[in-house]
Amino acid sequence: MNWRRAGIAAAFVVPVVYIFSRGMKTDPREIPSPLPGNPAPPFALSVFAPGQPPLQRPIGDTVRLADLKGRVVVLNFWASWCLACRDEHTGLSAVAREYTGKPVQFVGSLYQDTPGNGTQWIAEMGGQSYPSVNDPKALTAIDYGLYGVPETFFIAADGKIARKITGPAPPQVVRHIIDSLLTTSGSQ
Amino acid sequence: MIRVVRRVLVPLALVFAAQGAQAQVRNDSTPRTTGDSALEARTSAVAAQLRCPVCQGLSIQDSPSELAQSMRSLVRDQLAQGKTPDQVKAYFVSKYGEWILLSPAPHGFNLLAYAIPLLIVLGGGALIVLAVRRWTAAAPETPPV
Question: Are strands A161-166 and A72-78 parallel, antiparallel or unpaired?
Answer without folding.
Answer: unpaired
